[in-house]
Amino acid sequence: MEEQSVNKSEELASRFGEAIARLDGDESLLREMAAITAADLPEVIDETDQALQVGDSEQAASGLHKLKGMLSTFETGGVTVEVHEMLEMARRDGVVEAKRSFDRHRSELNDLVAEITAIAAK
């Protein structure tokens, strides 16, 4: 059983080492944050997607800002950078561009959400 715990810890450190470092090595805090974030992410993603679909740049920017904040706890590169770019697009009233980018990166976003949810379940 202890070996499984070590393997999970190594796996977590491998994927989210930078996040753990920002939390002074506190993996349990990362898990707690993941549980909170995983519970809220689906609603934030859906609200953001809806705002983008109807062309509401203000609501889209608000949702993208929340999403960026939630994701950046775990990852500062990858899709989090793309969400930041979408946020800037929405703020410039480029909601159509932001929607295209959101759709294009949805798979990456879903993958990160799944990883965050998995952390919460450990």
Automatic annotation (TrEMBL):
GO biological process assignments: phosphorelay signal transduction system
Modification Phosphohistidine, positions: 65
Keywords for this protein: Phosphoprotein
Residue ranges of every copy of the HPt domain listed in the record: 26-122
InterPro entries to which the protein is assigned, alphabetical: HPT_dom_sf, Sig_transdc_His_kin_Hpt_dom
GO MF annotation list: protein kinase activity
PROSITE patterns given in the database record: HPT
Name of the protein this chain belongs to: Hpt domain protein
The organism of origin for this protein: Rubripirellula reticaptiva
